[in-house]
Amino acid sequence: MKKWEEMMTWRMENMPYAKTFADLNRMHEQLMTMVVEQAIAWMNEKEGAPPVPFAFFVMGSAGRQEQAIWSDQDHGIVFDGEQKEQAYFQSLGEKIVKGMSAVGYQECDGKVMASESMWTKSVQSWQQQVLDWLTEESWQSLRHASTFFDSRVLTGEKLLLEEVKQTFFSYVTQHPQVMLRLKDNVDFTPKGLGLFSQLLPKQSGERTGQINIKITTMFPYINALRLLAIWNHRLEVPTMERLSAMESTYPFMKEYQPVLESLFSFKWKLTRDAATYEDVHYVSVDQLTKQEKQDWKQYIRKGTSLFEQTKKQIEKECSQ
Fold first, then answer.
1. Cβ neighbours of residue 228 under 8 Å, at least 6 residues apart?
2. Cβ(282)–Cβ(207) under 8 Å?
3. Pick from 240, 267, 313, 253: which is nearest to 21 by CA?
4. How far is CA 13 from CA 6, 17, 75, in A?
5. Least CB-packed of 126, 155, 191, 246 within 10 Å?
6. Where are the alpha helices (DSSP H) in 216-289?
7. For 214, which DSSP code?
8. Rounded-to-integer distance, Cα 57 and Cα 40, Å
């Protein structure tokens, strides 16, 4: 479609020149919204207006408003009706996936997209899905639950998604031990620092000499704040907003706010010139200055500390 081509041109003319990490994510927000609105307009013309109220939501880095220059698709739809209306919204999801792909968002390898029946459901079906994930407590089901919790409405009825999340909160209140499983589910991340505090790049393969900054450095902060948001029934999704919202509850959070703000800027600086989605999270250690290496080590240490404090807090409060 011509409009998709125009949107891709807009992307290439603007995103590489974002001055800050926040500016970049505002551009992502604008572009994704344009794609969804175009898909809705196409459905209105070809299939008629949406049969019931709905919300299109994004997850992952898009949900947290923490996207890099290139990003993949993680999204879903919740609608206020019977499951029989799923076909309409799944068709809308398919159109959104095509549009997102056309403007540079890679399809999710795990099929976490609104074109899939698992991620497009009625409110009632979503509520049951959340309960199934939390009740089953398998590694994959808990991973899906965490992915879903990092969801944020991009367009549509926000209260529909909030209604589903209340089911999440109710289950955790009644079954607090599930928090320990959610904690264990994100407890392992590849180490970024060695025994002698040296950065640990990959030693073989295509990414030799590189470190995945998202997995080794960002994830401890993201996972810790998500766990605390679930436990405290917080609806904020961006990691910085979660941190700010819980400073009064957990005073130890205050020391991490400037660290996390600096880390997002640091990652943006190191990855803004990535040419593809595959490249966007990897940084070559040899290209770093001495100061950048020192800063990176500190981000890793602080992330580890935050996650360890969070684990102890969750374990303590779940046992009370």
1. 234, 242, 246, 250, 310, 313, 314
2. yes
3. 267
4. 11, 8, 25
5. 191
6. 219-231, 239-245, 257-271
7. I
8. 14
CB-CB contact of 65 with 237 (8 Å): yes
Amino acid at the residue 25: N
DSSP 217: I
Q: To 10 degrees, what angle do helices 158-174 and 139-149 make?
A: 140
- Burial of residue 275 (CB within 10 Å: 0-12, 13-18, 19+) is exposed
Name the residue among 298, 292, 300 with its Cα closest to residue 270: 292
Report whether pLDDT(137) > 90: no
Choose among 90, 39, 65: nearest CA to 152.
65
- pTM of this structure: 0.95
CATH 3.30.70.260 correct for 2-175: no
Question: For every residue of 131-153, which 3-state class applies, written as one string?
Answer: HHHHHHCCHHHHHHHHHHHCCEE
Lowest-confidence region among 79-83, 141-145, 189-193, 282-286? 189-193
Q: 56: closest CA among 86, 76, 74, 72?
A: 76
Six-digit token string for 168: 């999440």
**Residue 18, number of CB atoms within 10 A of its CB:** 17
Spatial separation of the C-alpha atoms in residues 75 and 95, rounded to whole Å: 13
User: Taking 60 as the threshold, does the pLDDT of residue 1 lie above it?
Assistant: no
Euclidean distance between CA atoms 64 and 298, whole angstroms: 23
CA–CA gap between residue 146 and residue 180 (Å, rounded): 13
| Single-letter residue type at 149 | F
Under 8 Å between Cβ of 306 and 242: no
What ranges do the domains of the chain cover?
Answer: 2-175, 184-318
Q: How far apart are CA 179 and CA 185, in angstroms?
A: 10
pLDDT higher than 80, residue 2:
no
